[in-house]
Amino acid sequence: MKTLVQTFGSRHSTILCSLFIFTLSVYGMEPTETFTLWPAVPPGQSSARGEEKKVEGRPRPFYQITDVSKPTVSVFLPPKERRLGTALLILPGGGLQRLAIESEGLEVANWAVAHGLAAFVVKYRVPAPAMTGAMDGQRALSLIRARAKEWEIDPDSIGAIGFSAGGEIAAWMVTHHSPRCYEAVDATDSVSCQPDFVAMIYPGGLTAGNSGTIKEPLASKIDGKSPPMFFVHASDDAADNSLAYALALKKARVPVEVHIYRDGAHGFGMRESGSPVGTWTARFEDWMRSLGYLDKAFVRSYARDFFEASKATGALPRFPEAGTLEDAYFTQKRLVRGLKDTTIAGYKGAAVTDESQRALGLNHPLTGVLLSSGRLNAADRPVIQLASAPDTVVETEIGYVIDENLATQLTNDTQAREAVRSIVPVIELPQNYARRMGITTMTANDMVGSNIGSTRFIVGTPTNAASVDTNTVRVSLKRDTQTLHQATGAFVKDGQWTNLRLLLNQVTAHGYTVRAGSIIICGALGGPKPGEPGKYQADYGELGSIEFELQK
Questions:
Q1: Per-residue model confidence as pLDDT tens digits over 282-303
Q2: CB contact burial 404-419 (16+ within 10 A = b; e otherwise)
Q3: pTM to 2 decimals?
Q4: How many domains does the chain divide into?
Q5: Contact at 8 Å (CB) between 462 and 426?
Q6: CA 318 to CA 331: how far, in whole Å?
């Protein structure tokens, strides 16, 4: 605790430090360390007077401090075996006059550590303007990101959570991160101070009076570069702050999630409640999980290693044996998110026959993500150089263009059929990742975790869905004059419409919304064929044909 005592300094502060340590021990936690933010006199304005002290004579069911002139950060780390790699920068509230350091700082750190997150409680300067607090927050975030490796933190997974006035400070941090709120004082300030995600819990000070509009200079700085944001408020509190800010973010096309509870008053923190507001932490957990911030450490490392290896032509890593199929789907999402210059074009099926599912120990198909960058048009009669796509295989498939946004499970095949706008012939040209992994057969986890080798796919002319029974469509594939296979749409287990329903349900079950215009490809009809040089013709009968060429 030496660093804590050094931070507080005097005898009076040492007494306060003892109280602070006692508060920590109540929660069974002590900080790994506490560090100061500024090497000299900090920038910004502050009206702190005298020594830092506990707030007296203001009845509150939690501990508060005021007159903070020396801002610090207390570090709380989970045990090594439980660390996920995500960190939370915690900004307690207190109306910019005080800090609710217990209920909106230490208790939040306790929750974070219990969930495998590193926690950093910021004791920013009070009383002081919000911009001063933002300076402390930005400096703290840069220092944390600069030392991320030391604390086993993913530098791209550092979020901020602000309560009440801490929410306003978080807003300043986001809207004024480039340039930041102060002139750089050393090399640390060259490290980004932008949070990767932000949670605002009953934020205040965001709107201009009773106007319901965001105040300046925040409003003019809200743009599409903001990180994803999460809001919680009770409607019997000043919920217009969250609603107005969330609406401004939506207009700027920033992903946002908002929870307004019927009641709950102000300052409920993370404490238990008999009201629904007491469940907001579960919603926050769901939100972080959907964005990948609760991914296991080995999921992060495998996705990173696979992504780097896939850019070359050498060996690929296998999915870790300790991982589950769900872990593999989280890895798949992380791989897709890593490709920042692409958008999702649709989804593909794999393991769609009864035989392949039995071999993998499954009772359902697997799915992968198709990226817009891999789409080719059959009208162009594509010529593909195998040198740029080693171990390519050729698959004939039927594609379904979806007519509406889907985010829920379908209960019968008719619902799947009615969701289709048109049907298209598709040639998929994935890579044989098994060969690059040095194995004969991939497990289900290998397949999903590598996104099932999805790279290129050729799309033919659409046909009205109402006029085709895809189970009876006959498909043949030729290379030059040699017939490689013949099959029908019924090649997949239980037929095309059941297969489509299962594929759509797999996609939505793993957190995706299938957007209108997305294409779902059913899986290889007739099985995959090695991609050898030659001119190919795939005949889909009433759906038309696709011609393409593979060259050395």
A1: 999 999 999 999 999 999 999 9
A2: eebeeebeebeebbeb
A3: 0.90
A4: 2
A5: no
A6: 12
